[in-house]
Design a protein that fits this description.
mainly alpha, disordered C terminus, 3-stranded antiparallel sheet, 7 helices
Length: about 170
């Protein structure tokens, strides 16, 4: 089989769109079943580079509009319906995106927020359980001001062990 001729007008348009979307020259060549050199040559032309830049800016603008529309459509009720995991993940992504837009580092910020949220969630779950026990009479308050329940003292005492209030990882 002989050597293929240059890219068609339709292929050049595909190359521009795929490049603007972030495809590498090699990935574009596989997609179009063309030589990587042919794709690189097409993309090295100044007019093609300008057009790729215009397409990229247009795509960015469309995604920005979509993102704004989606964000504006979220109500406080929608957020309340999310699980703790979904809220944590969403807040981490939002913080990272905000920091990226401000040209700030995102290193470990998301991980720190997730760990903090899980610790807070565990602390709240422990408090909720203790309040439920108190309401049900499983825990009573002794004369020293500490809470007791089935021989367990919550607070400081030499006679009975304190309940461990550190968050547990489930």
């Amino acid at each position: 089989m002989g050597k293929k001729k240059g890219l068609t007008t339709a292929e050049i348009e595909q190359v521009k769109v795929l490049s603007a979307a972030g495809f590498t020259d090699h990935a574009i060549s596989k997609e179009l079943n063309r030589s990587p050199k042919t794709i690189t040559r097409a993309l090295s032309k100044p007019e093609t580079q300008r057009e790729v830049k215009v397409i990229r800016l247009d795509l960015a603008s469309k995604f920005e509009g979509l993102a704004n529309e989606l964000i504006d459509s979220i109500t406080p009720e929608d957020i309340k319906k999310l699980s703790a995991y979904q809220r944590t993940l969403s807040s981490g992504i939002a913080v990272d995106k905000c920091r990226l837009l401000r040209n700030e580092s995102t290193a470990n910020i998301g991980v720190d927020l997730i760990e903090q949220a899980w610790r807070t969630q565990d602390d709240l779950a422990t408090i909720d359980r203790q309040l439920a026990d108190l309401r049900q009479g499983a825990i009573t308050v002794n004369e020293e001001g500490g809470e007791t329940g089935e021989g367990i003292f919550i607070g400081e005492s030499e006679k009975t062990p304190a309940i461990d209030s550190t968050p547990s990882k489930q």
